[in-house]
Here is the input.
Amino acid sequence: MMETATTPEVTIARRAPETVMRLSRLGSFHQSRLSFMRVLLRRLRQEGWRYERRHFDIDARGVGVAVYTMHGPDRAYSLVAFGHDLPPEARSDRVIATAWDATFTLFDGIPEASDIARLGAEIPLQEAGRVSARELSVSRANRSVRLFDHVVTALAAGHQPDADLVAGVGYVMRTTAVYGSGKLGAADRETIAMRPEFTPPFQVEMLTVWLIRAFVLDLVEEMARKRAPKTATVIAPDLRRMIGIGNSTGLGMAPFLISHPILFNNWIMAREEALARVRAIALPDPARIARFSAILARARRAVALWQSDHPVQIARLADLTEDLGRLAAHLEGADLATPLGWDALWRWGAAHLHEEGQEMLVSLLLEPHGDLVDGLACCMAADEDAGFTIDGAMSVGRLRAILGDVYGWARDLDWQAAEAQARTWYVSAAKQEPRLGETLHEDLSAYEQPLAPGRDAMRLEVALRDLPEDAPIAGVLLAHPEHRHSVRRAQIAARHSYAEIRDNTIGANLMPIDMLRAKLSFFGAGYFDPRSDRWVRINMFRGAPFPHELHDLPEDDWAYPPREASA
Amino acid sequence: MIALSLGEAEALLRKAARGAGRTWGMAEEFGRALRWLEGSGLAAMALAADLLAQTDGMADAALAPAWEEKGGLVHHGAAPLCPIALGTALSDHANAPGAMGRIGPVLAPLLLLPYLADIARRHRQGYAVTWGESRFALTARGALDAHNVPAPAQRLADWVAWGPSDTEHAAAALQPHRAHCPLSAYASLNRLAERTFAPETEARRLSGAGEAKPSPDAARPKTEG
Here is the structure.
């Protein structure tokens, strides 16, 4: 049975970058087995990581300190959480906020009292504070106005919270930033990247958020208990598990995908390789087909829970709902247990489903094939530095060919037209956050960030126009240092086919939320709820086991809601 | 002194170099060079702040060497070269292994080391680098050799010379990476970096971040499905 799945007899090519690297498709990605939250929890479970709530001192208003530690085979990590009582008018999801309901850091090891005292003076300040190389992340969260008080009040009175309200909101607190990788003085990634638990990307951040979720649920239960010790109850485990951590993300995240081309390539490459491996399976086996159908049913429940008020997402959700219905109907009549049956299903989907449905189908096809695809998670990290050095011996002719191959789409655009350069990426003086300006309304060119690779590649092409084919690029760079960043990107993209988004990142039609969603889907986030074209709310770890029950529940079976309604 | 992570040091130098008028590609070079130096245990933040202050507003091309068919990279003028402009030119033209070189005058010559280290790595050939009282050995793996003579940081060298060198000693183990930056240099770099930020206007504040309209924090529970 396993042999048919693990010994593909044919090779199926990965999808072409021209197909995958379009913004609308990247903006249709969903979480999958390769998402970093799932990678993390699989490892913690397989390696037997032990959970310990070392310290928990929280009062009836939610003010106090808590320490949550995960003990691994070689090292331990501790979330240090500070609860605050914030007046409602001070609560803001904007990165420019200065106060939060709770603040956090992930500490490398087990903190001493002196560490907690030091962190208590810095972490509540967030960007205005400084941390040390002992800290791996800095984060903060705000209460959900609709759900937090409701849950505390209900629990204090001895009732369960309203299940429909819990299902509709999905979280009681949402993070507004999770900083890692050396931000605010924290440890640089290279100091921890060699530890196996942190080799895949964003494992520090995901561990932080998972422990924050545990703290937040403990927090509401503790507040209820402190308020009404005689009547208070706790949340029923199944309902409790359906509460994730919200996250509110704005433009700040979008440039990341452009400024980390090799890393982004490796994420996409792993996912495309996973799809190609499943499509290449000679003969699908019945147990896996059954698993696929079961997951599809659960995915349809997830889509039913997924709500948004944003017109773009409402339309996409309608497409997705229709797609999954069509997929379920197709499965009833199709026999997958035929040679290359998964590939046939994929090709049917590519012909009949919207982009939302096609990309969901990618995720679903990976589900029954953990043995084939989970190992790819280790290939998703990147040494961005490896692409830094420019090959000055490359000829002008070769560079021209690369530009045609990678940026061919940009040749088809009229870059003189206003809509082609309608936007300017810049950084605001106020809080040093990336923003998007309207080029027509104000000249921000002096402040423009290098986030328009397609346009810049076309400028480079113009500079190369009259040069001989065999001239080395080193001479061009000496005369035209303004093209240096574009030459670097082109050489990276020539070696990493999914490194470059093959779409206009400054056009009038740009929806920055497409870039946010692509990144967040690799984190493992779901329930994308755009609040504008550049601002999205999501849910993380919804359905996941809590640290205390990680080893009691099935492995990696939480990303879709259970088949029967539990909420 | 402020202790920065290497990521912070790199980002600060990238912005400061851009703020001082360098192109984005060259600004990336500043960031990466400082990351290498500080990560190798060489204090270079103050030197870089000096260099950028001294060359503020100058174009990359005015600070770079020239290329000649016969002589390779040369410098005829009396105005000193920028080590980053020189380093990138050396790196871009480093096709043949084992080349010797001597060029000057060069500002903040320490900042040339990351480029020679990278050339050493690419050609798997150790290098010796000298200027003034300083002598540095770079291993064929592109790391600092243990036997270096780091003289006080020099803001200007009449010339820098380098050539292949076979001696290779194990590089000293490095402590956790931090970039220690004097506060005056930190302030000066930040002043340059701030030039890359667009001044706030009310219109920008309202439109740029695209903040969602004020609304409750959650969608309504669905009545169906």
Remarks:
- Helices of chain B lie at 6-19, 24-39, 45-54, 83-93, 113-123, 183-194, 202-208.
- Chain B has a mean pLDDT of 86.
- Chain B has one domain: 2-194.
- The longest helix of chain B spans residues 24-39.
